[in-house]
Design a protein that fits this description.
- A 5-stranded parallel β-sheet has the order 2-3-1-4-5.
- The longest helix has 23 residues, at 265-287.
- It has helices at residues 15-24, 26-31, 50-56, 69-78, 96-106, 122-136, 144-151, 160-171, 190-197, 218-231, 237-254, 265-287, 312-326, 346-358, 360-380, and strands at residues 3-7, 34-35, 83-87, 112-119, 176-180.
- The chain contains 15 helices and 5 strands.
- By secondary structure, it is of the alpha/beta class.
- It folds into 2 domains: 3-120 and 158-205, Rossmann fold; 218-259 and 301-380, no CATH class.
- It is globular.
- Helices cover 50% and strands 7% of the residues.
């Protein structure tokens, strides 16, 4: 009997942790008759089958060499393994038509198909979604409260009744496995809970990876937002993306900052008002209770921060770190590969930086910053 377990996310519900854990335990799972296909994966260290999503919705980033639905179907037909796990948060965006097409592709090659969905408290998932957009989307510059106002405190993807109903209408309620991402409602760590939900025995024998996809704190996000505002009309998008990525790397390594919290009582209540009825119906449908989430809201100190709150040395350290990444010292001046046509300012900027690198002031600043970073590491350890 073959069983397909299709994990659809949605976003910001620990999908990266689950996919990383599946990759790291792939061989042990295989030894226990559980297949996590390579077909459809796009990463060298995570088992996320996003290429299958991209093929289904005709996205330009789909790559045939990474695996197709036809190849997956043939693999499942011929495999001797009883459980096959497929995972991508991209499935949560599928329309009724695309969900029906998945069922059509898989119906004749498996005896049982289960859909696994994790649900996270909407105020937290919205904060996490904003944080991701703030650090990765170059053209996104709204703060959390501006973004919520623009959305009218409602993001359709996190209306769980709408999400579940789409899949339930195609696969049936009995094949929808709903889990709530709260510590008191999980069976151990997230990955072990996922394996238990898949019906895998002794989940505790499988290793859980270290913290994955750690979100930056308020200092890092503030610096990223400010850089995006100040550089949007001055440098090209490719350079802007690089600078933002280096600032994010610097913040994770060197900023001593609390975990971000932007949700006060008023914000919390306005969000939950929009999702109250949807949550109630899911709670009744799958758990036989009025409340979907059981942990009460506890108001915590907000992590307010503005660019004026930075210490001068923090800005200098971030600048030095970013420049070292952008233009490594000792880089050859006459490279065979020339910059692209939209980098006409490269030579001028590089010449200026070469002058700075050879100056005593820059060398002193590098030494001071290096010592400061070593001290910070020692303090943290």
């Amino acid at each position: 009997m073959k069983q397909i377990l299709l994990h659809i996310g949605p976003h910001k519900t620990g999908t990266g942790t689950i996919q990383k854990s599946l990759f790291e335990n792939k061989n042990q799972l295989l030894n226990n008759n559980i297949l996590v296909p390579k077909i459809g994966e796009i990463s060298t260290n995570m088992s996320g089958h996003h290429n299958l999503v991209w093929e289904m919705v005709n996205r330009k980033i789909f790559r045939r060499e990474r695996g197709t639905w036809n190849e997956l179907v043939n693999l499942i037909k011929n495999t001797i393994h009883e459980k096959i796990i497929i995972t991508s948060e991209g499935f949560s965006h599928f329309s009724d038509k695309e969900i029906a097409l998945i069922k059509k592709k898989l119906d004749n090659i498996a005896d049982d198909i289960k859909i696994i969905i994790y649900l996270r408290y909407q105020p937290l998932i919205l904060q996490s979604q904003w944080s991701q957009w703030a650090r990765y989307h170059i053209n996104f510059s709204k703060n959390f409260y501006e973004w919520l106002e623009a959305l009218n405190y409602y993001f359709p993807l996190f209306d769980y009744q709408l999400l579940i109903d789409k899949w339930m209408n195609v696969f049936g309620k009995e094949n929808i496995l709903v889990r709530v991402l709260e510590q008191g409602q999980l069976d151990g760590p997230l990955f072990h809970d996922f394996l238990s939900t898949c019906g895998i025995e002794r989940p505790g024998i499988y290793a859980c990876p270290e913290n994955f996809n750690i979100s930056p704190g308020i200092k890092t996000l503030t610096m990223i937002q400010e850089i995006k505002k100040r550089t949007s009309q001055k440098i090209n998008k490719q350079k802007q993306i690089k600078i933002v990525s280096y600032v994010r790397e610097f913040g994770l390594d060197y900023f001593d900052e609390p975990k971000i919290n932007l949700i006060d009582r008023e914000t919390h209540d306005r969000i939950m008002e929009r999702y109250m009825e949807s949550n109630r119906k899911v709670g009744q449908e799958f758990f036989g209770r009025e409340e979907l989430f059981l942990e009460p809201f506890r108001e915590k100190e907000l992590t307010r921060f503005s660019v004026e709150d930075f210490k001068p040395e923090e800005i200098l350290d971030a600048f030095v770190f970013t420049m070292e990444k952008m233009f490594p010292a000792g880089e050859k001046k006459n490279q065979k590969k020339r910059p692209s046509s939209n980098d006409n300012d490269y030579d001028s900027l590089k010449a200026q930086l070469d002058t700075i690198y050879t100056s005593r002031g820059w060398q002193a600043l590098e030494k001071i910053s290096a010592v400061r970073r070593k001290i910070q590491k020692l303090i943290k350890s």
